[in-house]
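Re: the pair you flagged

First of the two:
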Amino acid sequence: MMTVPLLLATSTLALVYAFVTHDFSVRYVAENSSLDLPQVYTWVALYAGNAGSLLFIATVYSILTAVAVVALSRRLPYTAPYATSVMALVMAFFLGVIVFLANPLERLAIAPPDGQGINPLLIHFGMFIHPPMQMMGLISVAIPFAIGIGALLAGRGGRDEWVDLGRTWGMVSWLILTVGLLLGSWWAYTILGWGGYWAWDPVENSALMPWLAMTAFVHSIMVQKRRGMFRMWNIILVSVAFVLAEMGMFINRGGPVPSVHSFAQSTMGWVFLGFMAFTLIAALAAFMWRIDTLKSRERLDSMLSRESAFLTQNVLFLAVASSPSGAPSTPSSPRRLPMRYHGRQAVLRPGKRPYPPRRSFSSWE
């Protein structure tokens, strides 16, 4: 159970060591560090690019999974095998992407004398706290999702025994996402290149959407605990939250709409889109298979009851979440951008010519 977290943690530390020692024979280090980069920022360069951020996410998720498996085996022994299988499937996806598509420890045949460096916007104190919190928040949604789907697959979704543990992990995920959003809004206000305000931006919305769904979930699941209601609805909510979290990772890794906040662009975003589609189909299939176990004998007392208010609140949260979810997934014309670029983005300044990227090996048009 601890083997995967230990191996991933070792790999992460090895990559950090490569950054600290300026080992430019490692491709990822050469692309995201340089000799003139302040030493303290060599640590945060770990997740400044695509492969390193995936390794960080996988490491955090493996630790969360190890803790969740221990809690499941003690409190939900009948659900534990199914929930663990769901978590293992998500883990296998990330490991597969890291090994076959984005190896952060890939070596170069010839080491360059210096590296490319990171985007100047990332040399900021916010880099130490906002990206880790946002990445942790997005991947942590997988834990309550696995618990809910695990209970559903075990045929125990209607017994309400998974509610306490599911809500606990839901609150953990919601809290991390909340902190990540607050830090992101603070960072956006301090960077002139981002317009000096919290914009309607794909990357900014990528954390807002699952946060709204998780907010609805942690409220709605209390009704299930106290009244045995909303069983179907809660499974739907936690599934939607995880799909939206996957959408956030897709947007951060080559989504169809460019973002001034995205510094890990790659073509593998479509791999995440495929996994998101697989998750949606699999969750729907499990829901339809076990829908009979989710039926409740309780009914809403009236349209003015507390439970009706909770349901109305949930619908409003999802309606708000659906509003930004369309914008980041709809391609826009590149003519609306003040420049064209390949690879790393330039620093945007409203109404002015953009700064070119630092030490960029990309071609500029």
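Second of the two:
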Amino acid sequence: MLAGHRAGGSHAQALSDAHCYGLAAENAGFAGVWIAEHHFISYGVCPSATTFAAHLLGATRRITVGTAACVLSVRHPVSLAEEAVLLDELSGGRFRLAIARGGPWVDVEVFGTGENRYTHGMADAVEILLRWMSGAATVAGGLPGLLAGTREHVRLDGGESGPPDIDAYVRQLIAVHPVGSPQRCRAAVAAAATLPGVRHLLFLVEATGDRATTLHTIGRLSSEVLHGP
């Protein structure tokens, strides 16, 4: 869930809608629901995925609730790990933590974590977080080499990335998002589930921006695609 802000609506309404979708997902039989975290952008108005998850965990009984994802570039890894373990314990094991580097430069500027933390610090932060969650006696240092491959997604020469190829992006979206009958969507979901390393399949249901239509989509995904004939 993005908790996206739509024209004519308020941020409070976007958050209320996302909470409603989480409840609907549990009632529809989904295994889990995931909430995104964004700062200073309009298409996602949830600034703390862990806080939202805590609220939704308290309102549900069965479904798992995850973050997709917490912006680690602006958080201390030990603080985030503490929150994650606390939520998992209080919810009876229903919390799931996912993390990401984040996007807009304004995030690191406002929160004061700095460019170096964004471009080079992800591997170290992840290692510290994992060490703390494992119960290690010390988490003062990390192992940057563990996730060194994450750096390839950031320009290290200080240059700006070129403009995106919109046509290629649209073709990619069409290729990975099935449009058509429930049978076609079901086949695409089944094929994706067989890919190596896939443990979760996430469905982005808020494209319409309308609560009633989104709730209808959640119901159809459950009854016609995931649990259909």
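Confidence is low (pLDDT under 50) at residues 141-157.

-B.
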